[in-house]
Specification:
Elements: H1 2-25, H2 38-47, H3 51-55, H4 59-93, H5 95-100, H6 103-114, H7 125-152, E1 159-167, E2 175-183
Antiparallel strand pairs: 1-2
Helix pairs in contact: 1-4, 2-7, 4-6, 4-7
Length: 185
């Protein structure tokens, strides 16, 4: 078990730090002559969360998506481990007896059979495991879509929005609003 945990730790650190190295290798200038392919961004993001954002020169977003995925995966496996303790206890004492126990008796039974003490945060582990699994899938799909959209908007002109208040007509006492959007190439 420890060997599996050690290899998963090294895999997790590789997943977390590989995009940083790739980001350092790419130029950071947002040059309008650079050609960013949205399909490539989508593919990179699908292969490894955050890689599409690095391709589109958004390393902060990449770090946030990687951290969100790592957190959700960690929580998923933590609650899966706790769920396996509960399942092992259910199998040992039988479903009929398990369903007749109170919550405190169930917690005591899990501790007696597996040595794991359920806390308020770890109760209902299957529901929490499933919730983090769905969050993981949601963040994964969202970061793919974000990389695709960012790639399409990469060469969009950077401009400023200006809001000014000025009289509509000098003869009237009314105030109008002008909204101007200046785009520069």
């Amino acid at each position: 078990m420890r060997k599996i945990f050690a290899s998963s730790k090294s895999t997790l650190s590789l997943i977390l730090f590989a995009p940083i190295v790739l980001c350092a290798m790419q130029p950071q200038a947002n040059d309008s002559s650079m050609n960013i392919n949205p399909r490539k961004a989508l593919l990179y993001s699908a292969l490894l969360p955050g890689l599409g954002q690095i391709y589109v020169k958004k390393p902060l977003k990449a770090g946030l998506y990687i951290a969100a995925e790592a957190y959700n995966i960690y929580q998923f496996y933590s609650y899966n481990r706790i769920y396996n303790y509960v399942k092992e206890t259910k199998d040992a004492i039988g479903q009929d007896i398990w369903s007749s126990l109170t919550e405190q008796q169930k917690k005591d039974s899990v501790y007696a059979y597996t040595g794991y003490e359920l806390t308020l945060n770890s109760w209902r582990p299957r529901e929490k495991r499933n919730k983090y699994g769905w969050w993981c899938i949601g963040v994964y799909l969202f970061q793919i879509l974000d990389a695709y959209v960012d790639a399409h908007l990469f060469n969009f002109p950077q401009g400023k929005v200006e809001l000014t208040l000025s009289p509509s007509k000098p003869a009237e006492q009314a105030i109008g609003v002008n909204l101007a959007l200046y785009l520069r190439r």
